[in-house]
Design brief:
The protein is an all-beta fold. The chain is 0% helix and 52% strand. The chain contains no helices and 11 strands. The strands form 2 sheets. Strands 2, 4, 5, 6, 9, 10 and 11 form a 7-stranded mixed β-sheet that branches. A hairpin with a 4-residue loop joins strand 7 and strand 8.
Length: 128
């Protein structure tokens, strides 16, 4: 069973940047589709980004609210997935979670219900 640990969260001013890392242990992330989700206080967990295997290469997908500002990537050799967040806004404040599931089915897994392994989350706070 894979375990996921997110790091890199913190407090940043609006317009700033952060890079989140999701380190996996227990098995290689090769063969896993990876996703990023976030949950703000009083709100439901929402999709942020995915990097999924499409048979030939990895495909990325982003929510409309972060498209053009956030970029997800993965380094299978380091067993780590990244979320680069630029031009941060106060509304990006949330706990960010990394998630994993076995490759297969949809290439764009944007629903939290499709992931069965989750990290503990890392807090991102953006001040105005």
């Amino acid at each position: 069973q894979v375990q996921l640990v997110e790091t890199g969260g913190g407090l940043v001013q609006a317009g700033g940047s952060l890079r989140l890392s999701c380190a996996a242990s227990g098995r290689t992330i090769t063969g896993l589709d990876m996703g990023w989700f976030r949950q703000a206080p009083g709100k439901e967990r929402e999709f942020v980004a995915t990097i999924n295997w499409g048979g030939v290469r990895y495909y990325t997908s982003y929510s409309d609210s972060v498209k053009g500002r956030f970029t997800t990537s993965r380094d299978n050799a380091k067993n780590t997935v990244y979320l680069q967040m630029n031009s941060l806004k106060p509304e990006d404040t949330a706990v960010y979670y990394c998630a994993a599931t076995i490759v297969g089915g949809s290439t764009y897994k944007t629903s939290a219900s499709l992931y069965n392994v989750w990290g503990q989350g890392t807090q991102v706070t953006v001040s105005s």
